[in-house]
Structure formats: structure tokens, C-alpha cells
Specification:
Number of helices: 8
Number of domains: 1
Strand order of the largest sheet: 1-2-4-3-5-6-7-8
Helix content: 25-40%
GO molecular function: hydrolase activity
Organism: Nocardioides furvisabuli
CATH class: Alpha Beta
Strand content: 15-25%
Protein name: Dienelactone hydrolase family protein
Keywords: Hydrolase
Structural class: alpha/beta
InterPro entries: AB_hydrolase_fold, Dienelactn_hydro
Largest sheet: 8 strands, mixed
CATH topology: Rossmann fold
Radius of gyration: 17 Å
Mean pLDDT: 91
Length: about 260
């Protein structure tokens, strides 16, 4: 077992604090944009698999707390660390640093439309590996904020049968066109639509007045029809299952995973 550890201020993105003390750190390597790429992956629990993809600035204590709820509901949970200092709190400094990282990285798209984020291939590989290990009908995938749409991109792989989009916010909604874009290539969108036509469902959570989500929920309803399940809250909050946690939203996510994956 790869035991939790502590480093000083020079630990960078591998900083581990008490929030992750009961989790096991592993790694996963797969292709991203033609390059073998390795990211840390935190693991805990038993049962059907769920991949929780963190928001900006990284795997904060609030992200860990939500993932712990998924573990308690009877799941094997993997949290890949794509950027940020693992376990560090959300601050202005950590957020700015993470934004700087994602805006220059070739693993992510921030403004381009009609394109699947390159890191989706890495996440699909992680999902296939987890499904092969734990079995069952498939695995769940949940993204939030910057990574909210990543779960939809992961759904292109048959191993992902329970995708959850929490306040999907890329590409950044700085124009009307970008605010409607799903961060998917046309080919990947066709696959997602085909899976939905065959009975797959997609769960989405947002605050109705969250400007970061833009018009994406309307696009999802237009493209996926009744297969897109909308869970919406009043107000201008943002992080539906972490900083601005809504119990009804967490319950909807856990129920979705239970129904699609068979935990509990």
C-alpha cells in the first residue's frame, strides 16, 4: 500500500494534508494528446466504481468530503489529481495558480468550441481499468466546475454508465457560443446521443443563475432530450456538492449512482 505522506512547502501539487490521510495514493498512465501522461490517483472504498474529478483549484478538503460520502454509500472511489496541490484548501492564491496551469496545458481546452478536452482519453482509460477490476454494469463519473463536462466526454467509453455533470463551466462562457458549447467534438457528441437513445441517462446539477454554466443545460436538453436529468437550485451559487453544497443535490447524485451501478 502506498501510504499517505507529508512534505514541506516545496511539495507543490503533491502536498498531502489530513483530508487525504485515510486515502491511498496510486498512479495511472495513459495517452494524452499523443504523449504518455501520468497523474496521481487517490483511492478509497469498496463496491461499484466511481471516478470523482475535482474542480479548480484541485482536490480540496471539500472535494474529499464529498468523495467520502460516495465511499460511505458503498463505492470504490478514485480521485485523479489533474492539477493543484492535493488536499490544499481553496484560496485566491491556489485558484490563480490552478487557472494558470490549466490555461497553458495541452491537456485541457478552455476556450475552443466543438472539441473534446484532450485529458478525456486519459480519464476513459482510468474508467476502463476500474471497471475491469470491480465489474458490474459500469462505473460512475462525476466532474465539477472546470471538469464538469469531463464526465460527458468519459461517457463516450462504454465503461461509463453513470455520468454526472456538476456546474459544467468549460469552455469558459465568455461569449454566447462558448456558453452553449458542451466541450465535445461532433463525433463524440454523436456517440453520447446514441448511448442516450439506447437508454443511457445523464445527471446535471447547477444553480439557475450561475453565469459560469451559461446555456449548457439548454444545449444538453436539446441534444439529449429526456435522457438529461436536470437538478437545479435557485440563486447564484456555484459548487453544488462542495463549497455551496446542496443536500438535495448530493442525494440525487448518490441515488443516481445507486440506480445505475447497484451500490448500497
Amino acid at each position: 500500500m502506498d501510504l499517505p505522506f507529508r512534505h514541506g512547502a516545496d511539495a507543490g501539487r503533491f502536498l498531502v494534508v489530513d483530508a487525504l490521510a485515510s486515502w491511498t495514493r496510486t498512479e495511472h498512465t495513459a495517452d494524452v494528446a499523443g504523449r504518455p501522461t501520468t497523474h496521481p490517483v487517490w483511492r478509497k472504498g469498496a463496491g461499484p466504481g466511481v471516478i470523482v474529478v475535482h474542480e479548480i483549484p484541485g482536490i480540496t478538503p471539500e472535494v474529499v468530503a464529498f468523495a467520502q460520502e460516495v465511499v460511505a454509500a458503498g463505492h470504490t472511489v478514485l480521485m485523479p489529481s489533474l492539477f493543484g496541490a492535493d488536499g490544499a484548501p481553496m484560496t485566491a492564491a491556489t485558484t490563480a495558480k490552478a487557472l494558470g496551469r490549466v490555461c497553458v496545458s495541452r491537456e485541457f481546452t478552455t476556450l475552443r468550441t466543438g472539441e473534446t478536452t484532450p485529458v478525456a482519453g486519459w480519464l476513459r482509460s482510468l474508467a476502463r481499468e476500474l471497471h475491469a477490476e470491480v465489474g458490474g454494469p459500469g462505473v460512475g463519473a462525476l466532474g465539477m466546475c472546470f471538469t464538469g463536462g469531463f464526465a460527458l466526454a468519459m461517457m463516450v467509453d462504454p465503461s461509463v454508465t453513470a455520468p454526472v455533470l456538476c456546474q459544467p463551466s468549460t469552455p469558459f462562457a465568455v461569449t454566447p457560443g462558448r456558453s452553449r458549447d458542451l466541450n465535445l467534438s461532433p463525433g463524440d457528441l454523436d456517440i453520447v446521443k446514441g448511448r442516450c437513445a439506447a437508454g443511457q441517462q445523464v445527471l446535471g446539477l447547477r444553480f439557475r443563475s450561475d453565469p459560469a454554466v451559461g446555456k449548457r443545460f439548454d444545449t444538453l436538453t436539446t441534444e439529449l432530450g429526456e435522457a438529461f436529468i436536470r437538478v437545479e437550485f435557485e440563486g447564484k451559487g456555484h459548487s453544488t456538492v462542495t463549497i455551496h453544497r446542496q443536500q438535495a443535490g448530493v442525494d440525487a447524485v448518490l441515488g443516481f449512482f445507486r440506480d445505475k451501478l447497484g451500490a448500497g
